[in-house]
């Protein structure tokens, strides 16, 4: 097994690209292994993956790393009408410090599977689509374009791994290694939380849900968020929702309060109205009436 402590070397960035493909998982593969590295990224849906002696349920956003000699098998999920969509990337000739040549270091805890955060997931989806498009083209330099995309994938994984290690170090109470950790990695965690809320504020969001998506404890997230911003994650979410609600009322004062509430993540219009008044000193009904009157006089 590769040791988790390593640095990138120049030879990491000169891999031999072998192939890439996208497919919907409708049939079970044989239990097999390769003499090269294969990355499998779940683009949509879910399926099961058997890796060596264990079986795992994988779903959208999961990245599976299969080093040479790792036996594996992909098994379709139960929903055959909406099968999992997988992207496979195969390559060889990589070299990492403290890791056998031709192997990639596994993720934290020596696992082959990791759930990527939303930002990293979006970047990898974009790279997979670009690789698939390039692979199906007949343009000059196709191999080198695919190799360039592969290098971006490897760098993206390395950055995620660096952030993963840094976050776990903080959770364990380890002292930050210099200013760079304090100025970047804590800010990265906070920015990820804020980005998640910006993307999902229309949905039901709980601190436990955010923590699960970030692979952190809810206690740690709450403590870190408070120390870095001076506010709690929940208060930040409420403030964000109120700002979005006011934008809706400014743009469409005729919009019913129930619809405004639903648009910013509240099923209970009365609860939403109380929060809005607390923030702006006016109920949303009075706010939109005043706005509508000013726009029509």
What would you note in describing this structure?
The structure is a single chain. This protein is an alpha+beta fold and 297 residues long. It has a five-stranded antiparallel beta sheet, with helices on one face. It is elongated, with a radius of gyration of 24 Å. The N and C termini lie far apart (73 Å).
Summarize the SSE layout with pairings.
Blueprint (H helix, E strand, L loop, with lengths): L15 E10 L11 E8 L1 E6 L2 E6 L2 E5 L5 E5 L7 E9 L20 E3 L2 H18 L6 H30 L7 H22 L6 H8 L3 H12 L3 H19 L5 H7 L5 H12 L3 H12 L2
Helix pairs in contact: 1-2, 3-5, 3-6
Question: Can you tag this structure with a few keywords?
Answer:
297 residues, alpha+beta, five-stranded antiparallel β-sheet, three-stranded antiparallel β-sheet, 9 helices, 8 strands, elongated
Residue windows where pLDDT falls under 50 for at least 5 positions: 175-184
Q: Strand order, main sheet: write it out.
A: 1-7-2-5-8
Q: Taking Cα atoms only, what radius of gyration do you get, to the nearest Å?
A: 24 Å
The fraction of residues assigned to DSSP E strands is 15-25%
Q: Label the overall shape.
A: elongated
Count of beta strands: 8
Q: How would you characterize the largest beta sheet?
A: 5 strands, antiparallel
Helix content: 40-55%
The residue-averaged pLDDT reads 83
Secondary-structure-derived class = alpha+beta
Terminal CA distance reads 73 Å
Helix-strand topology string: EEEEEEEEHHHHHHHHH
> So how many helices?
9
